[in-house]
Write a structure and sequence with these properties.
heterodimer, A: 328 residues, mainly alpha, MetI-like fold, two-stranded antiparallel sheet, B: 276 residues
Chain lengths: 328, 276
Amino acid sequence: MAVHLDARPPAVPAPRRSHPDRGHRLARLDTRFSPYLYIAPFFLLFAVFGLYPLGYTLWVSLHDWDLLGASPTFVGAQNYRQLMSDPDFWNSVVNTLGIFALSTVPQMLLALWLANLLNRQLRGRTGWRMAVLVPNVTSTAAVAIVFGVLFSREFGMINWLLDLVGIDPVNWKANRLASWVAISAMVDWRWTGYNALIFLAAMQAIPRDLYESASIDGAGRARQFWSITVPLLKPTIVFAVIISTIGGLQLFTEPRLFHSGTNAIRGGPLRESQTMTMYMFENAFAPHYNFGYGSAVAWLLFALIAIVAAVNVLVLRRLGGGRREETR
Amino acid sequence: MRLWSAGRLTYAALVVTAVLSIFPIYWMFVVASRTSDAMGQVPPPLTPGGNLGANIARLFANTDAYFLTGLVNSAIVAVSVTVSVVFFSTLAGFAFAKLRFRGRNALLLVIIATMMVPTQLGVIPLYMLMTKFNWNDRLPAVIVPALVTGFGVFMMRQYAGQAVSNELIEAARMDGCHTARIYWNVVLPALRPAAAVLGLLTFMTTWNDFLWPYAVLNDPENPTVQLSLRALSDGYYQDMSQVFTGTAIATLPLLLVFVVFGRQIIGGIMEGAVKA
């Protein structure tokens, strides 16, 4: 939705016949080459520090490559074959997908609901918007540490609250499903308000008379929400889901700092919440520095992101029923 | 334009949401201002105590965290990256929105595509590159790769399209301004509101960055503030009031920015600054 390539004509440099010859030539050089000069820094830096590393990861993943890297040996697909039979790798895949599903679905529904609330005649509009956005502007690392304490087994506030209503304490760090829930809660705490604001922006673009005629036809608020708001928001929802797919499948800081101690990169005593990015990190950096193996994990994660994003788009298209992008 | 009115239920739901949003941050400051006993108390204390000063003193004296170095480093990194991203993004955004050159649309599509690339997956070769440059454990390793973002270029391009009038550019050209002059005297002033939002978002993202600094800055004596937090949190002996003082201080600059510029940030996000 953010992608509109407009066809408006750019400012055309005025022809400047009256100027002396040298100035004229300089001006021509200027108008011809300045644009490239202005966009070059982005492309150069992105090529060196963004694209090249990503591509080179593939090359590294085909090698037995360690920190010294003096003579990396080409091993073909061996790292990938080894990963296929590595239970810790599959464990990280399951964790990544589990946390992703557990966080994204409620997050999108809550964000829609919240946007719907914010889209009313409210007193103190800016205040409410700031209140829902404030989790997004906190330090991720700080919040992960705070949530780690909130969810701690012995002195954690969550277990204390559960105890008040008669539920036994949960071992949030060492129970697989519980740690997924805790980490998802952290992710949703940070991103729900942000997505709500994006949905709100899209909701405000929906013409009011659509609702008016619907209510004349006797449609209640809930009906109007599901039959008008949600379908018209679909491009925005697709966009938000794609963005959270790319971010959510690479989840690292939250699960890493949810745990603490020397082996925190494993995400719990039995790797209950180790994500793929954490597994890549564990292999590629201190103390193992197994660059080849880590790179193979990175590429499989890349592939997974592409697949999940594509599946999301297909599913969301389907959900729209008969209405297919007729609005834009 | 008539909006639905908001009933009591709406306000009640919003209050609950706001409390949930703010509580973890509030509680962080509560624990930061108490002694470490606060952690074991039942029921948990919910009001600030008077121990903040002592906690700050102990935090800055902590020889595992190098917290002051972390703060200074993070400030250096975040400010350098912000200035650079704003400069290069306005420059390129201006070119894409207002100048005519061959390949313009194709190159713009490339920029949009770069926003979808999970560059975090390239950290291993990036690390090898930094080893080659001898930048490991040093700040250029976290500054230089962040100097440009596709998001920034795209955002400035969208804004320049509507905020800078073609007539103004044309008039400046008639007066004999060359393109660089037009950028500096005409375009940059017109872009200022959007550039400010981009700057704020960039500052916050950079201040928050964790994975890449964690990978490349291995010297415990030269961390960013987020790495100081990690050192505190992973420490063998955990003094929670001290850890929380660290998290509170690391969050404070972001909260200050948000309190002062919240309206602009919200505007920027809602106007299509749509990316994590």
